[in-house]
Fold:
Amino acid sequence: DSGVTQTPKHLITATGQRVTLRCSPRSGDLSVYWYQQSLDQGLQFLIQYYNGEERAKGNILERFSAQQFPDLHSELNLSSLELGDSALYFCASSVGFSGGGTYNEQFFGPGTRLTVL
Amino acid sequence: AQKVTQAQTEISVVEKEDVTLDCVYETRDTTYYLFWYKQPPSGELVFLIRRNSFDEQNEISGRYSWNFQKSTSSFNFTITASQVVDSAVYFCALSGYNFNKFYFGSGTKLNVKP
Structure:
């Protein structure tokens, strides 16, 4: 158990809908990262937050948004869902941020499996 | 463009055999970072190692070792005396200096048979 929790574990929804995925980092970790793993696109880095601020943005679609709250949990919002958004969404956390020459070991949550019908 | 290639889609070995997973990368950055991750059948991702482009020293951690060669743009991963618990999909990844350019390879599925 990495100490990172993600809810829900599974989510089934329809095209055009909006969903929110939640991530609670390990105690003491200030950074949260979001990744998407799909059959078509493989593993992709989406976005990184550090202590409430966005630090790095990867291949995140405009229909997707994320935020990190003062209690350090993070939410990934996916809207106008399409069939291709079906994927496993991972959250990871680390003590510090990664970037600018600094990298911290990431601990991954179990993921949320999103199915868009 | 940045790219990570893991040409081996799937490898099967018998327990106690040594196995090397290949990773070839492309980047124009002078500063970059390379990673390996493990994804066991249970599905969670596990961070294994990070290496920066300035450090070409090989690294060994128990039965795991990594060989980084800038001349061939490769960052290969060797498991010595493989065990059934090593069965997983292994991903190589490449990151730019600021982590925003982050690319995973397609993964190599390792099957270790008893």
In short: The longest strand of chain A covers residues 42-50. Residues 3 and 26 of chain A are 5 Å apart (CA to CA).
